[in-house]
Amino acid sequence: MAKPILLSLFVFLLLTVCYTSLAAAPASESLYTTFLNCLKQNNTDPSISNIVFPQSNPSFSTVLQNYIRNARFNTSSTSKPSIIVTPKQTSHIQSTVICAKTVNVQIKIRSGGHDYEGISYISNQQPFIILDMFNLRTINVDIINEVAFIQAGATLGEVYYRIYEKSKVHGFPAGVCPTVGVGGHFSGGGYGTMLRKYGLSVDNIIDAEIVDVKGRLLNRKSMGEDLFWAILGGGGASFGVVLSYTVKLVAVPETVTVFRIEKTIEQNATDLVVQWQQVAPTTDNRLFMRLLLQPITSKTVKGTKTLRASVVAMFLGGAEELVGILGKEFPLLGLKKSDCLELSWINSVLWYNDADEFNNGAKPESLLDRNLNSASFGKRKSDYVQKPIPKDALNLIWKKMIELGKVGFVFNPYGGRMNEIPADATPFPHRAGNLFKVQFSVNWNDPAPNATLNYLNQAKSLYSFMEPYVSKNPRSAYINYRDLDIGINSFGENSYQEGQVYGAKYFNNNFDRLVKIKTAVDPDNFFRNEQSIPVLAGKV
Fold it and tell me: Which SUPFAM superfamilies match (predicted)?
């Protein structure tokens, strides 16, 4: 009797081992097979399999890492998609949405990969798919009608260059980093050095295309004004896959002026910042004066740290006029004509992105370089200041920054056109009443986990310290400076309440309208991420 029993036990164990290995290994492969078969059934393109990269594809890691822009999310322990889809035409996106719904897998949508928390390409849910938009980069510039059609996978550098090819007196108000993707930048608001003259990127958008949860391609007319409003600053990934934007170009003079002036605490930087708060949000709306604040090693007192204030500016006009304006309004800056550089608008884009590269001969064509698979470690947070920070408080802030050691600030002045546009004109609500936006910024290169923890804690510590000096009820934030510290949605029973925590900060009183639109266009909450717009309770 012993032999049959042993034989039965052996067969049972063998079957168990085989079943277990089959169940574990092919999970992502079976998803790939099912998903690909669905794509083929829902698309007439015979080469559609070439745009689908499962983890087993030799190119998978390269495709994934090309558009990871924060090294914090490029580690062996970072969550990976089961599949990356790289659409080359609209129908590819439509089929991907339909099939992801069919197999019940989450989609993450990546345009340029610059989301500061990586949520366009990582997920706390498994499995998930990345819909990677980088092939969809068509830009058609129509100078006669002063408009441009721009696909979501284009970069800002490509947008600027294509405008420059057609005209030297047109531009577009968007960000200073040329590798940022249009899809994420525009759908979160988007701003740059022409903010005070022309407002946000979304204030200059006249049409858009989106693939909705049903796989339909909609434009402004067919999607309706509610959904069109929502994707002008509400974060497009909550509502569908934004395929393109049509924008109004803006006028720029043949000559613009830039300058950078730096002062340390020992050189009266504190009084300079006091005066900057009075001038930067109220001066001529052609002038954008960004203020960078950074703890540095002192050059005058060995072994000690100080704080450096850098005013980095772009003026839509000539140097002589600019020196006259700031001589009256901002005497502590001490601007001289010799501090200024007059150049074309396209060259101001190059200078503002990297003055050293520009001075070494960088040409407009360099804006086409996507600089793939290159990222340092970083963390960003944001705030809004509505009352000038007094001098004694600034001294306390400098002391805290020097004590922490690494985290810096970027102060971006508002006023001008931003004061004229109502807070509910777009989902982006931070308009009149805000003097400037604050970015908390820290970058590092040390890959050690304890280094990352240290810098993340520095940023949190400075954020806590700043609470008395920034907006309240809510303490506002900018969605494109993504910060998961201010709230994450688990999409359980309390998803509306969880969404309200970060939603009120990003969107203020516009949050509830976004929720209503989300509930109407995506009632099952298919398009979601860690900080997406939730649906109304009871709808999921």
Answer: FAD-binding/transporter-associated domain-like (SSF56176)
Name residues whose C-beta falls within 8 Å of residue 334's C-beta, 6 or more positions apart in sequence.
261
Instruction: Tell me the two tokens of residue 492.
Output: 């359980």
Nearest to 64 by CA among 72, 50, 53, 76: 53
**Token pair recorded at residue 532:** 């997406």
Let me know if 161 is a catalytic residue: no
Contact 287, 348 (CB under 8 A): no
What does the pLDDT average to over 133-151? 98
Give dist(CA 84, CA 391) in Å, integer. Answer: 51
How much is the pLDDT for 302? 81
Residue 379 DSSP code = E
In the set 198, 455, 481, 496, the catalytic residue is 481
Neighbours of 452 (CB within 10 A): 17
Q: What is the pLDDT of residue 300?
A: 82
- SS3 for 14-80 is HHHHHHHHHHHCCHHHHHHHHHHHHHHHCCCCCCHHHHEEECCCCCHHHHHHHCCCCHHHCCCCCCC
Torsion of CA 323, 326, 327, 330, to 10 degrees: -150
Is residue 16 predicted with pLDDT exceeding 60?
Answer: no
Distance CA 428, CA 147 (A): 23
Q: How many Å separate Cα 398 from the centre of its chain?
A: 28
Paired with 540 in beta bridges are none
3-state secondary structure of 228: helix
The amino acid at residue 35 is F
pLDDT, one tens digit per residue, over 418-431 is 999 999 999 999 99
Please give the Cα distance from 194 to 201 (Å, whole number): 10
Instruction: Return the DSSP state at 440.
Output: E
Is residue 436 within 8 A of residue 412, CB to CB? The reply is yes
Q: For residue 176, what are the CA distances in angstroms to 76, 198, 312, 349, 355?
A: 31, 15, 12, 7, 12
CA–CA distance, 234 with 237 (Å, rounded to integer): 9
Q: Give the CA-trace dihedral at 517, 523, 524, 528, to 10 degrees.
A: 0
Gap between the Cα atoms of 520 and 498, Å rounded: 19
Q: What is the mean pLDDT of residues 274-295?
A: 98
- Cα 378 to Cα 69, 174, 190: the distances in Å are 9, 22, 20
SS3 354: coil
The amino acid sitting at 413 is P
Write the DSSP symbol of residue 181: B
pLDDT tens string 312-363: 999 999 999 999 999 999 999 999 999 999 999 999 999 999 999 989 899 9
pTM of the predicted protein model: 0.93
Angle at Cα 134 formed by Cα 361 and Cα 96, nearest 5°? 175
